[in-house]
Design goal:
The structure is a homodimer.
Chain A (H helix, E strand, L loop, with lengths): L4 H24 L5 H7 L4 H7 L3 H25 L4 H18 L1 H6 L5 H24 L9 H16 L10 H11 L4 H10 L2
Chain A binds a DNA duplex (30 and 30 nucleotides) through helix 1 and helix 3.
Protein name (chains A, B): HTH tetR-type domain-containing protein
InterPro entries (chains A, B): Homeodomain-like_sf, HTH-type_TetR-like_transc_reg, HTH_TetR
Organism (chains A, B): Actinoplanes palleronii
Chain lengths: ~200, ~200
DNA sequence: ATGTCAATGCACACTGGTGTGCAGTGTGAT
DNA sequence: ATCACACTGCACACCAGTGTGCATTGACAT
């Protein structure tokens, strides 16, 4: 099956390394240039343009990866067919590392490439809103905000906590989950009970 | 008292107009240039540099204004000597329009001028954290997060709702306040009661 | 009437990033 | 042995924004 095995593989390795490193570099500084990414990937700027014709292409590819991963997680936790609030807890637990990895996308959402990112992220937003709506329909979640807004704000809070770099402590996924559950209207006692059921 | 009355006044008018317009323009697009601001203010780019030697100077002046307004509001609501949760409600009500006005600063917090803005906004963050801490000490607020983080995340949620531009609806300060109270650990019933006490 | 000075309208130099072109080099494929 | 081609290294053009210099205009102050 691998026709041009070694040749093609090492090329894909370079490409993947650029993508991985780009997530890192842009995560630290969303305004980093193609040069910074290239250097960090141990490659020359020109080479990056060999794989991605433009900066937008790079960002788009990154976003597509993120959408794929997030959609997978959402599909899996939804497959468990549990209550919406339990599903939310499972979702946050599974999405936690992904959120940190792709933190740059949220930062870039407002900006030059916001339009492209937003449209690609649309489907994920939909799925998230669906989950919250399901919770509202079964009265697990409150209705003080429409599902679309509530899902965004709740996930935004998790994201904010996940990427907050406090001087001494490191972000606490448990506290973040509780916070998001609270704002979804889940009582604190139930929130803690849900968390204690997690493996 | 006005020595060079007309002269100096019209100069201050121009300066103030630039500042006001800058808030507007940068609020819509944080990456707008000095030229865009100048044009929107009905003035030439060179004139803006006459009042503010650099872009950073402009941003700093804007930030100083914001800090002054926010500090005033915080001082006033704290003077009422009510419970921390009631104070929070009053604070959100009073800060709501200000939040929208200075929305650009939050957007610019991550970016080139983040350092300068952050240091100027520091005192406000302190006051906010103090309020939340007070609430935690009197058991009005939950302790799932340290006061510093919780205050930031709660205010961040309010900000997110205040600046969310939904297709048809406009942001609802009441829903935003409830959301923030929930994540602070205030039970929904109490949150609604607090809001109904507001004028 | 005369001077002052904010605002104007150019000019310019500088910076920092993007994206392209092309000749050269080394390593796998044939 | 030779071809293909990913990567290099340097060149360039281009753009958009920043900040400065300076001569000019016009309203206000004296």
């Amino acid at each position: 099956m691998p026709a041009e095995s070694s040749r093609l593989r090492s090329m894909n390795e370079t490409r993947d390394r650029i993508l991985d490193v780009a997530l890192d570099v842009l995560g630290d500084n969303p305004d980093a240039g193609m040069g910074d990414i290239a250097t960090a990937a141990g490659v020359v700027r020109r080479t990056v343009y060999g794989h991605f014709p433009s900066r937008l292409d790079l960002i788009r590819t990154l976003t597509e990866r993120a959408v794929a991963e997030m959609t997978d997680v959402l599909a899996e936790v939804n497959a468990a067919a549990a209550e919406a609030d339990a599903t939310w807890v499972a979702f946050i637990a599974r999405i936690w590392p992904v959120t940190h990895r792709y933190r740059v996308l949220l930062a870039l959402r407002r900006g030059e490439y916001g339009e492209a990112i937003h449209s690609l992220l649309g489907p994920v937003d939909e799925l998230l809103a669906d989950l919250v709506r399901r919770g509202q329909d079964s009265s697990r979640f409150a209705r003080h905000l429409p599902a679309g807004t509530l899902s965004q704000v709740a996930y935004g809070a998790v994201f904010a906590i996940a990427t907050s770099d406090l001087p001494n402590e490191n972000p606490d996924p448990r506290a973040a989950t509780i916070t998001s559950l609270l704002m979804l209207g889940v009582p604190e006692t139930r929130a803690i009970a849900l968390l204690d059921d997690q493996p």
